[in-house]
Design a protein that fits this description.
By secondary structure, this protein is of the alpha+beta class. It folds into two domains: about 5-165 and about 355-385, Aminopeptidase (3-Layer(aba) Sandwich); about 175-345, Aminopeptidase (3-Layer(aba) Sandwich), CATH 3.40.630. About 40% of the residues lie in helices and about 30% in strands. The protein has a 15-stranded mixed sheet that branches. α2 packs antiparallel against α7 (about 250-265) and α6 runs antiparallel to α7. It is globular. It starts with 5 loop residues before the first strand and ends with a helix. Mean pLDDT is about 90; it is low at about 1-10.
């Protein structure tokens, strides 16, 4: 981790003679005193739980061996008005050192959080400009801001980045959400086939007293449930190329993040048990009027009963009764989400490059060079490294 604890990036003039104080924090040691004001700014900007102080700190604690914080902090007369929770990751591709600037929580190919972005009080152009100036002073050559919330602040961020550096077109990523009905059966929003299948399966299991439901809302039990989720994920993916949860840091992160979130009163685990065994789980996060299905897992023994659908119905029903307006299924266009009534809300990806990497990209685009690198496979290796 960078030994420079706090680097001031200078002062940016404002109208009326006031100034913005801009700093880049490169050590987690300086973050704890910011807890309260970080959360105050996040909530005023309506940013997601994945940008919260606790989730950021937990992620950095588990992945500090591969990612170093470069958190841009913008103040006006001591008041926090802007925050960009960035991290830098380094690796080599074709002998070139890649330094990738990403959002904390996304950019390491593990534990990818979503609905991310910068925080900017009142959508101020001068605050966004100050963040861009601070980005200029961070040591990176690949910019990969993935799964950002599609909103005016992040769109304005893209415009300012594209004015400063060579930037790809925005990539849009579907993040399906279901609008929960105010009353009635939540299955009414599902497809007719899914509705019939779930109702028939539940009726069959309840007739023989084979199904039970459990809500886990105690911190230690939630941590244990998350650990079991990771174990079942390994079993389910063992014959399909392996599970990401063979990474012990990721398993530990999931466990501790769920423990802390439940302890704060913003997390819950829903479970379906069949024949006395855990059949499926949904690790959920309460985020304003939105319930997020962060992780969904199931026991392969019960795959013929589609236990993932059963736990989704249970969780959606509980969310409706608790007054949540939407049910978020996370990034990615998996078909089951749409069968449960989801419609796309879009996230965005901003990608740019500078320095040696930008020069290399230009050279490799020349016709003769492009044919050479295409034949050697070098271009694919470098491009793959950009996105991993």
């Amino acid at each position: 981790m960078n030994t420079e604890l706090l680097r001031e990036r200078g002062r940016s003039p404002l109208q009326g003679g006031a100034t913005l104080n801009v700093q880049t924090i490169s050590s987690t040691d300086e973050l704890p005193p910011m807890h309260a004001e970080w959360e105050s700014l996040r909530k005023s900007c309506r940013c997601s739980i994945f940008t919260s102080f606790d989730w950021v700190m937990e992620w950095l604690r588990h992945f500090d061996h591969i990612a170093s914080p470069s958190i841009v902090v913008v103040r006006e007369e001591g008041r926090l008005v802007g925050l960009a929770p960035f991290a830098v990751m380094e690796h080599r591709a074709m002998g070139i050192k890649l330094k990738k600037l990403s959002m904390i929580g996304n950019g390491t190919s593990v534990a990818e959080l979503y609905d991310l972005g910068v925080m900017c009080r009142d959508r101020r152009e001068d605050v966004l400009g100050a963040i861009i100036e601070a980005m200029e002073g961070i040591d990176w050559n690949v910019l990969h801001l993935n799964e950002l919330r599609e909103d005016p602040v992040n769109r304005a961020l893209y415009e300012k980045i594209s004015e400063r550096w060579e930037t790809d077109d925005v990539v849009h990523i579907p993040c399906p959400r279901t609008d929960l009905p105010l009353e009635g059966d939540v299955l009414d929003v599902a497809s007719s086939r899914t509705r019939r299948t779930i109702r028939k399966t539940i009726e069959h299991l309840e007739m023989d007293n084979r199904i039970d439901y459990r809500t886990v809302d105690l911190p230690e039990e939630a941590a244990e449930a998350a650990w079991i989720y990771a174990l079942q994920h390994r079993e389910r993916w063992d014959e399909k190329g392996g599970s990401i949860f063979t990474n012990e840091n990721l398993s530990s992160f999931l466990k501790e993040a769920m423990r802390a979130t439940v302890e704060e009163g913003c997390g819950v685990v829903y479970e379906v048990w069949i024949d006395g065994s855990l059949a499926s789980q949904m690790l959920c996060l309460e985020d304003g009027d939105l319930m997020r299905a962060y992780r969904v897992g199931m026991n392969n023994r019960f795959s013929d009963l589609s236990p993932g659908n059963l736990v989704a119905y249970y969780a959606m029903n509980e969310a409706q009764h608790a007054g949540f307006v939407q049910f978020d299924f996370g990034a990615g266009p998996e078909e089951f989400k749409y069968r449960l009534g989801a419609r796309d809300v879009y996230l965005m990806r901003i990608q740019s490059k500078r320095g040696t990497v930008r020069a290399m990209a230009k050279i490799s685009s020349l016709p003769g060079v492009r044919q050479l690198v295409d034949r050697s496979g070098a271009r694919e290796q470098v491009l793959r490294a950009f996105h991993q």
